[in-house]
Every structure is written in structure tokens, then in C-alpha cells.
């Protein structure tokens, strides 16, 4: 089998990865003003930087919302599309040996995909994600640069803006330590620093996603959640999700190449289909 290239085409950012003899090869992303420019820029840069000849490529697999703008073969190569939720499931499943889990894809919004063995099922989503983080940051911090917001948050103290159980109760409640959040931004005032506000915004987005993920598994045996997407790269993930693990008695996993897992899953969709022929 030649190289299978998986491409996750977003609104302005394209992620691309090669699958060569089952191994992930040089993931990269490109940002441009529109999905088509981003797609062709990403593909051209990828094959050039990796010394790949077009004849080396067996298949190009597209997924993501921006793939709807592409209706012809890419550079004359065999090109197909796969469902984004299937790609999410395959990409996350590839990173773990857990048979039963929920994939939490943290993009502009957030989607939930349940995996039970070989079965992949989209079970819902929510309109909170990276877009929320950027929008609130524009309003409250006058920037939408996530790296800048994360840098500010690293110097902030979320307990100055979030109301905790310990602020309203002297003792821990059943299954809730005094450090648990009682109300996001429930303690904020007009004198809050940009650093504390940035920390509050990130915690709001990550805690809401984590809580919704846990609720999506209620009345099921699922205890493992695989987090994928750009938000997994926020340093605050290493603070928020371990705390939620101890409260809810679940496990949140952030696999290698977490931000590229949808592109990886697109390539795996072709591999899976052809391995059963």
C-alpha cells in the first residue's frame, strides 16, 4: 500500500497527515483565509517538505466542514471524503487499546462520539469550544489569539473569579471537595485582572466540556474519554481534567498527536475499508 494522506479541512485551518505502512508521518497544519486555499497550501507544503512524489500517494481522504468545498480530485490523485465523526472515532481509537470510550472532539464547538468495539456512533455535541474561547476573549480581553490568552491565564488565579464550594460551605459535600467549582465566574468583579479573566475563560470552556462529556456517559459503563482537537494543547488541560477525574471517578486521555486525530482517522477510514476487501 502506498501513502494514504488524511486531511481535516476546517474553515480556515487544514491539518494533514500521512499514513505510511501504518505509521503516522509528519503531521502539519496550514492556516489561510479560506478552506480551499488552506487545503491546497497544506497539501503542496506537505508533499514538498516530506519529499513525497505524487506517484507515492495511493489515496487522499478528506474530512471536516471545509471538505464540502472540494468536488474534484486533488492534483489528479484518487480523492474521497469520509464522515467527520467516523474520522474522530477511528483517529481516537487508533491511539488506545480501550474498547469502550467516548471521543470528545474539542474544535470550534464540541462533539461526542461513542465507541463500543468496532461500533462508532455520534451521540451529540454542544456549541462550546474554541470558538467560545475566542469570542469571550475578544469581548473581555480584546484579543482572540488563543496563545496569548493561555499565556495570560498561566499568570492568573481562577479562584479569584470562580466561586468554589469552599466559598459557600465550610465542609466538603458528598463527592465534592471544597476546591470544586460551584459557579463559573460566580466570584468575578469589575476589578478582575486580565490574567484572572483569561484563566476564568479557559476554565469555563474546559470544565463545561468535561462535565458534558461525563453526563454523556451516564447510565453506561463508559469511564474513559479521549480528548482530541486543538484545545488539547492548552496547558490548562493538565490542571482541569485531572481534578475532574478525581471528582467523577473517570479517566480523560490526551493521546499523542491529539490535534491531528481527525486527519489521522480520515486516512484510517481508507485503510479499514481496504483491509476488509
From TrEMBL:
Keywords: ATP-binding, Coenzyme A biosynthesis, Kinase, Nucleotide-binding, Transferase. One of its GO terms (cellular component) is cytosol. CDD domains: ASKHA_NBD_PanK-II_bac. The keyword Metal-binding does not apply. GO terms for biological process: coenzyme A biosynthetic process. One of its GO terms (molecular function) is ATP binding. Gene3D superfamilies: 3.30.420.40. Pfam families: Fumble (PF03630). Its EC number is 2.7.1.33. It comes from the Bacteria. PANTHER family: 4'-PHOSPHOPANTETHEINE PHOSPHATASE, PANTOTHENATE KINASE. This is Type II pantothenate kinase. It comes from Bacteroides stercoris. The gene is coaW.
Amino acid at each position: 500500500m502506498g501513502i494514504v494522506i488524511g486531511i481535516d479541512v476546517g474553515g480556515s485551518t487544514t491539518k494533514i497527515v500521512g499514513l505510511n505502512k501504518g505509521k503516522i508521518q509528519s503531521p502539519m497544519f496550514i492556516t489561510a483565509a479560506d478552506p480551499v486555499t488552506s487545503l491546497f497550501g497544506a497539501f503542496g507544503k506537505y508533499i514538498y517538505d516530506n519529499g513525497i512524489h505524487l506517484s507515492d500517494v495511493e489515496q487522499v481522504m478528506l474530512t471536516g466542514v471545509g471538505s464540502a468545498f472540494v468536488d474534484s480530485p486533488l492534483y489528479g490523485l484518487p480523492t474521497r471524503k469520509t464522515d467527520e465523526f467516523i474520522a474522530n472515532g477511528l483517529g481516537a481509537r487508533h491511539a488506545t487499546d480501550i474498547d469502550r470510550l467516548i471521543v470528545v472532539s474539542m474544535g470550534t464547538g464540541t462533539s461526542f462520539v461513542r465507541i463500543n468495539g468496532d461500533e462508532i456512533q455520534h451521540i451529540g455535541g454542544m456549541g462550546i469550544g474554541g470558538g467560545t474561547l475566542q469570542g469571550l476573549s475578544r469581548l473581555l480581553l480584546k484579543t482572540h489569539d488563543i496563545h496569548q490568552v493561555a499565556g495570560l491565564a498561566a499568570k492568573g488565579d481562577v479562584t479569584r473569579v470562580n466561586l468554589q464550594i469552599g466559598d459557600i460551605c465550610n465542609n466538603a459535600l458528598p463527592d465534592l471537595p471544597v476546591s470544586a467549582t460551584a459557579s463559573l465566574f460566580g466570584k468575578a468583579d469589575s476589578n478582575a485582572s486580565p490574567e484572572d479573566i483569561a484563566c476564568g475563560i479557559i476554565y469555563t470552556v474546559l470544565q463545561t466540556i468535561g462535565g458534558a462529556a461525563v453526563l454523556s456517559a451516564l447510565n453506561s459503563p463508559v469511564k474513559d474519554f479521549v480528548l482530541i482537537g486543538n484545545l488539547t494543547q492548552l496547558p490548562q488541560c493538565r490542571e482541569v481534567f485531572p481534578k475532574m477525574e478525581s471528582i467523577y471517578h473517570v479517566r480523560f486521555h490526551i493521546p499523542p498527536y491529539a490535534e491531528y486525530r481527525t486527519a489521522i482517522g480520515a486516512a484510517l477510514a481508507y485503510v479499514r475499508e481496504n483491509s476488509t476487501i
